UniProtKB/TrEMBL annotation:
The keyword Transport does not apply. This is Cytochrome P450 90B1. It is found in: Membrane. It catalyses: cholesterol + reduced [NADPH--hemoprotein reductase] + O2 = (22S)-22-hydroxycholesterol + oxidized [NADPH--hemoprotein reductase] + H2O + H(+). Keywords: Brassinosteroid biosynthesis, Heme, Iron, Lipid biosynthesis, Lipid metabolism, Membrane, Metal-binding, Monooxygenase, Oxidoreductase, Steroid biosynthesis, Transmembrane, Transmembrane helix. One of its GO terms (cellular component) is membrane. Its cofactor is heme. Belongs to the cytochrome P450 family.
């Protein structure tokens, strides 16, 4: 065969290849990706994105990007091509299409620390099963009786240690409260006991790693957190074995049947490894989030005397009525009757934004409002950006609980439910949203009735992007007796 004959034989294949190439090119160029900047190779724009900023703002990075590209833009974050959304409609679309077009996708480092069975990283059926167990455990009946009562007991325990004119970290106190409540509810561990304190200490190290750079080298926070994870796991494992022994000996007390550990051992067929990760992720999801929300309420209230005044009136009325009828403990009707308090809680969550954005990825090629989102790309719905969007909420930077008396005071012909999602939504809506509100309401009740407080040092909530008061929110308190 001569060269020209060979060429003729291969011509069809060459043409076919050329055609494929052109088609691929055309498909690529026909893709209408959102505008944006992919930044540096690999690093992308991650550093800009993670630069700390005030939690009641969306941060300079995002502000600049929105003004340059609009509310939906592309970027390169955490080493992956990413679509960032500050758009209310698109956020809702993403959240409602979980499992069909999008899927939960947290960075691998989170999975490494929380465990592969953690509810935050699981998807599909396994996620659904774990979620069902958690929801059963946080169900309405348990909230009404058990959890409300425990929340009140633990609130009073924390508040009773506050001395007049002493200065302390309100954030640490709030964390003490929510940790004790979760430890009790999950494993029947009592506050102040040596083992509870030890678990708390390990857990703090562990948390620092979850939010740090995932560099597994000696001396890094991530490495220490991995070590803490195994210490915490051994701890929970010991508890579990102890419990199984007791269950066999049938000397188990009623209270122990009632905690999550007892419940999963009896009523589920989870493996020990799955139980460990479930407990760890519940501690993780349900502890700092609500503690920081309580700290935010303490912060906003000391800065808003008129809100505090109206709030006190509401709780005084409840307390006086209870005193008259000789009741001691708050009950579910009391909780439900705290109308203005619920406005304060919503407003705190709207302005404070404890969870800023969710991690998702496209599991199909998606088209939304003319934009293409290729399968496999990460998608970050920034729920906080909608809460702080002046085209959605009137004067979004004002702490104004009264807006909730008009359904959030959102602009235009839409309901708040389209725009207010502090707890995410859809198939992954926060399993502890009602518990978090109960914790906030009960804590606020006893706080405003028994104390005056002010900041002992300037501090403000920052987004790292996890939200925290860098100085711990130092406050100074005085007792007051109103009822
Ligand atoms: C104010 C406090 C809280 C806030 C702002 C909050 C926020 C959230 C958000 C936004 C999600 C969705 C994550 C995603 O879709 O990727 C979530 C999930 C979750 N939260 Fe909360 N949370 C709070 C308190 C709690 C508490 C007290 C618990 C109690 C245990 C809890 C348990 C969970 C669980 C188990 C999930 C995973 C649900 C699932 O994947 O199906 N959270 N939370
Ligand atoms: C607070 O927000 C929730 C949505 O998360 C809404 O259902 C509720 O009605 C709001 N409460 C008030 C008092 O507006
Ligand atoms: C909002 O729109 C719906 C239909 O889309 C309409 O029935 C309703 O009257 C509108 N409400 C207001 C306040 O304009």
């Amino acid at each position: 065969m001569s060269d020209s004959e060979l060429f003729l034989c291969l011509l069809p294949s060459i043409l076919a290849l050329l055609l494929i190439f052109i088609l691929v090119q055309r498909k690529q160029t026909r893709l209408n990706l959102p505008p944006g900047n992919m930044g540096w190779p690999f690093l992308g724009e991650t550093f800009g994105y993670l630069k700390p900023y005030s939690a009641t703002s969306i941060g300079e990075f995002m502000e600049n990007h929105i003004s340059r590209y609009g509310k939906i833009y592309k970027s390169n974050l955490f080493g992956e091509p990413t679509i960032v959304s500050a758009d209310a409609g698109f956020n809702r679309f993403i959240i409602q299409n979980e499992g069909r077009l999008f899927e939960c996708s947290y960075p691998r480092s989170i999975g490494g620390i929380l465990g592969k069975w953690s509810m935050l990283v699981l998807v599909g059926d396994m996620h659904r099963d774990m979620r069902t167990i958690s929801l059963k455990f946080l169900n309405h009946a348990r909230l009404r009786t058990h959890l409300l009562r425990e929340a009140e007991k633990n609130t009073l325990l924390v508040l009773s240690s506050w001395k007049d004119n002493s200065v302390f970290s309100a954030q640490d106190e709030a964390k003490k409260f929510t940790f004790n409540l979760m430890a009790k509810h999950i494993m029947s561990m009592d506050p102040g006991m040596a083992e509870t304190e030890q678990l708390k200490k390990e857990y703090i190290t562990f948390m620092k790693g979850v939010v740090s750079a995932p560099v597994n080298l000696p001396g890094t926070a991530y490495r220490r957190a991995l070590q803490s994870r195994s210490t915490v796991l051994k701890f929970i494992e010991r508890k579990m074995e102890e419990r199984m022994r007791k269950m066999e000996e049938v000397i188990e007390k009623k209270a122990e049947e009632d905690d999550l550990l007892g419940w999963v051992l009896k009523h589920s067929n989870l493996s020990p490894e799955q139980i460990l990760d479930l407990i760890l992720s519940l501690l993780f999801a349900g502890h700092e989030t609500s503690a920081v929300s309580i700290s935010l309420a303490i912060y906003f209230l000391q800065d808003s005397p008129t809100v505090l005044h109206q709030l006190r009136e509401e709780h005084l009325a409840i307390a006086r009525a209870k005193k008259q009828s000789g009741e001691m403990e708050l009950n579910w009707d009391d909780y439900k009757s705290m109308e203005f308090t619920h406005c304060v809680i919503n407003e705190t969550l709207r302005l404070g934004n404890v969870v800023r954005f969710l991690h998702r990825k496209a599991i199909n090629d998606v088209r939304y409002k003319g934009y293409d989102i290729p399968c496999g790309w990460k998608v970050l719905p920034v729920i906080s950006a909608v809460h702080l969007d002046s085209s959605v909420f009137e004067e979004p930077h004002q702490f104004n609980p009264w807006r909730w008396q008009q359904n959030g005071n959102v602009k235009g012909n839409t309901s708040t439910s389209n725009h207010f999602m502090p707890f995410g939504g859809g198939l992954r809506l926060c399993a502890g949203s009602e518990l978090a509100k109960v914790e906030m309401a009960v804590f606020i009740h006893h706080l405003v009735l028994n104390f005056q407080w002010g900041l002992a040092d300037k501090d403000q909530a920052m987004a790292f992007p996890f939200v925290e008061f860098p100085k711990g929110l130092p406050i100074k308190v005085q007792h007051q007796k109103l009822v």
